[in-house]
């Protein structure tokens, strides 16, 4: 003979209220998530973050305020699209801008000319005394193999400026042709300025011949 058991469980009233509240919260969340979006322009404008559109689409009749907002919105939108299109077209064309300023001078000033020669001195113009004084610079042996004996070392005190001017390369031997502003010039049109470094200062840097025109060639 089958036996049937019947069990009855009684929940407390507070537990039943808590459970009902949780079920109600779940139903409200589901309803909010499933609520359809606004279908009219007024609802879209109110929920949109686009600046000014909520002042255009409002409930009621269209007034002056909405008209002004609409004109301002369309003008700003048109300006934005124009600037964006202009920048895109300019970028695709890859333009190159070159600015030139031309100035006409009635008379050009002849520039300074500096001639640097790795051979500071002409060996043919050096004397035994010069070679002796310039031994640390040139490393040249004496022309006279019997020279530079202790008894023959009675050389005068060296004048380095004189040695440079006398044994340096002469312009009339180096200048092959010269033309400035359509006029021919020669070695006589140039002058060698005085040493600006005071004698040995020139030797410390390099032996050079700096030339300037005595008078500008027209």
Automatic annotation (TrEMBL):
Its main location: membrane. One of its GO terms (cellular component) is plasma membrane. InterPro entries: ENaC. One of its GO terms (molecular function) is ligand-gated sodium channel activity. Keywords: Cell membrane, Disulfide bond, Glycoprotein, Ion channel, Ion transport, Membrane, Sodium, Sodium channel, Sodium transport, Transmembrane, Transmembrane helix, Transport. The keyword Ion transport applies. It is a multi-pass membrane protein. It is found in: Cell membrane. Belongs to the amiloride-sensitive sodium channel (TC 1.A.6) family. This is Acid-sensing ion channel 4.
